[in-house]
Q: What sequence folds into this?
């Protein structure tokens, strides 16, 4: 828990991943920055909410969760939310991730609540770069995994997360229990170093985040 507490107190995450915050590929030049929700510009937050609605509303409506904007906004404005924002050199907002440092099933994890890319920014490696940054931050703050929740009827996201090395997490519910979502994860190298702690943590009370990504 102390790793999570420490990570949540960090006011500047950029030094942990500064080499990755500039991205150039296939005619896009992108600058990225990270801010806690409390420092995030209101207009940027509104864009992130709008993009999430544009990208995800239909997918939510066609599964057991349904689309509940109020609940999504509440989730996106949690006090512990961090935002990674990607902006093109010309100033247009292209992608973001909402993530948090949290305890999940007794393990310190970086939980990726959203990764959303504007249509014009897709298939240029930007989503992958965003995940690379989250993985670097997870490693730098001693989190064991980057973990996330994915809708099972979102084939492009499934292909994307698999291509980026994410696999079914052991905490993912059985299909009979919940068929519409699954938990995916990628271990940081810390996972290998802390196997013993991991076993101890199994006996801790399971508190599962399960955000509706
Ligand atoms: C899913 C998403 C985040 C991917 O972002 P992206 O920047 O387009 O992804 P990348 O360019 O980094 O893709 C990396 C690799 O993932 C795979 N991939 C990405 N999108 C894919 C798609 N639509 N179909 C199949 N494979 C895909 C490919 O292997 C790709 O490599 P390639 O382009 O060299 O073949 C983006 O499409 C998006 O925002 N979608 C809508 C919202 C969403 O579903 N978010 C995820 C759940 S919250």
A:
């Amino acid at each position: 828990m102390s790793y999570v507490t420490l990570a949540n107190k960090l006011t500047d995450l950029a030094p942990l991943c500064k080499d990755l915050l500039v991205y150039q590929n296939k005619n896009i030049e992108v600058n990225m920055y990270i801010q806690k929700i409390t420092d995030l510009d209101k207009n940027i937050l509104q864009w992130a909410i709008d993009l999430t609605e544009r990208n995800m509303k239909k997918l939510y409506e066609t599964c057991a969760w349904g689309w509940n904007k109020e609940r999504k906004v509440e989730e996106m404005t949690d006090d512990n939310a961090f935002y990674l924002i990607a902006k093109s050199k010309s100033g247009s907002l292209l992608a973001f991730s909402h993530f948090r440092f949290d305890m999940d099933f007794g393990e310190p994890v970086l939980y990726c609540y959203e990764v959303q890319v504007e249509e014009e920014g897709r298939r240029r490696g930007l989503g992958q770069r965003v995940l690379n940054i989250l993985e670097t931050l997870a490693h730098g703050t001693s989190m064991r995994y980057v973990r996330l929740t994915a809708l099972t009827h979102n084939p492009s996201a499934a292909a994307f997360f698999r291509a980026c090395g994410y696999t079914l997490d052991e905490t993912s519910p059985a299909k009979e229990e919940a068929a519409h979502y699954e938990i995916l994860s990628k271990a940081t190298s810390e996972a290998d170093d802390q196997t013993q702690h991991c076993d101890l943590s199994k006996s801790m009370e399971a508190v599962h985040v399960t955000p509706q990504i």
User: Anything to note?
Assistant: DSSP finds seven helices and eight strands in the chain. The longest strand covers residues 93-104.
